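Course assignment 3, question 2. Fill in each field.
Student: A.L.
Task: Predict the tertiary structure for the chain below.
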Amino acid sequence: MPKLRITVNAPATIGFAFICLIVMIINYMTAGKSNELLFMTYHSSLLSPLTYLRFFTHVLGHEGWSHFIGNMTYILLLGPMLEEKHSSRRIIYIILVTAFVTGLINYIFFPNVALCGASGVVFAFIICTSFTGFREGEIPLSFILVAAVFIGQQVYEGVAIRDNVSNLSHIIGGVIGAIIGYQSNKKSRYRY
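Answer field:
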């Protein structure tokens, strides 16, 4: 019987999840102070270098264990498939772009709201995944259905439910996932 071995099939995805876990543990040990300092974006002075750092690092912090587990379940489910199809570099690009855009928009338009968590990245992955069967000149029905359900849910929750969830960052993540998914699949069609 052949020996089984564990392989790292998606280094960017697994690395991201592992970093989020470490940040979650540190946040727990510091009673939330590390999130406030480094892993949450909010309206702070543009003279502080940490303001710019937090535009990216806010996706690493999570409000609590259920928030973390919910996001990491999707990240670890969808990320390896995307990483296998596109590359580790593309996954890192999706994470960085989603983090920066959601952080910047939150900073500009919602000065009284602190934002943390990888939910925007999750929705970027969800929408990007719906492009896996994309062919030139076609729009996948799966993309239309996912986008309709996703956007409908976010609009409904944004209007009808008052909670600490940033529905706008979910929508922004979905838009980024659609753009990158479309571009990535269009490029991959022409590779030999």
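Instructor remarks: The radius of gyration is 17 Å. The chain has eight helices and no strands.
Grade: pending
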